[in-house]
Amino acid sequence: MFTESEFTMIVGAGPTGLTLARQLSRHGVPYRIVERSERPFDGSRGKGLQPRTLEVLDDLGLIDRFRAAGGDYPSLRAHVPGGHHDFRLDELHEPTPSVPWPNLWMVPQWRTSELLAEGIPVEFGVGVTELEQEEVGVRVTLSTGEVVRARYVVGADGGRSTVRRALGVEFEGETHEEERLMIADVRLTGLDHDHWHVWPGSERGSFRLGLCPLPGGDWFQLTAPPTDLSPGQLVASVDPAITVTEVGWRSEFRANIRMASQFRVGDVFLAGDAAHVHSPAGGQGLNTGIQDAYNLGWKIATGDERVLDTYEEERLPVAADVLGISTRLHRGHVEGSADAMRRDDPVLRQLSLNYRGGTLAAEHRSEPGVVRAGDRAPDSPLAEGRVFDLLRGPHATLLAFDWAGPLPEFTVPIHHLQNSEGSAARAYDIDGPTLVLVRPDNYIGCVTRDPADVAAYLKLIAVT
Hints:
It contains 11 helices and 25 strands. By secondary structure, the protein is of the alpha/beta class. The two termini are 13 Å apart.
């Protein structure tokens, strides 16, 4: 379908751009990925991977690497006059048959990028200076002076996206200059790694200092309101027994809550922070960007205009909803709400995000169950392996529940799940012979009792 001259240009090699590169690689789509920075990002910044993102990483064949690189979030230890008290932002959840990884998983962002980048030919020190849409494709001028013609361009180049600005797309929202936060990676002595340590401020809901231990080493992520003190001085001011021995990455966050008015303009797409920037509250931003790329990659591989249009249709409303969640949590911090630290809203895990009612959600049952077209495809144990083993890979998958009759020779893998696989039927809330077509990004595309509906759906998503 694609020739070497019909490559996709990915602009930005953060987690979003790298996930897209991996998606295109396994679909056999030629691409280039450029990054204006001279070297990979080296900070802990977005350190929380939500359960749905872990499922994406499973599908990409990376889950074992990420599990080895990270850990569960520790309980918080609030240091108060006369002692301390411990609590959790959210209780740890036990895995279930349909949700194998139910908890937020901590991996420093530099390590997430490093794992996603393995085998990906990133061109560092190369940015984009100009874009010009042509009748088919995009003329791209690089900072090196090279001019190329790409079939598609994806701007994954952050909140200050050059691609978004070149398109003239509005970045709607607001910036609160007065709401700032210092973040730094520090090594220190005199503090255990078993807790996320917090020193509250004088006003309800405020804090002076947070020190969160990072997995895989002896670093902590330091967070604090803006101060003229150095990280070492700040830490010593709350406890002289703790000594900062090294300061690595350091940044200042400002409350910048914005979203692009469009995610597609012609043959150019926006993803990740280029399309939406969030408060870090709730750990939504990096995860939403990874899932943007997961959604877009297989659609680029089809090269079908109708399918590509569904990227904005599906992801823009999701980004708006997620932006609302992270903004609500952020406001709780600013306003000193009593429950501002809680993270037990199940929506944060991003397992319930769905595309119901959209172009690619074909629900043909008159009385669908709890799980229906447009929803995330659940996992379930099988007699051998599990459902996620059947779905893993770049293909769409047909699950035939209790199907006794013949089926056409569809061009996707078909797996028959009979009564012996009752747990899978329960996970999918299936009653009677049913065909469930799962999209390449492991969302349920079509549910029906008529094979002709499956054939029509495969044609719709350009899989023939």
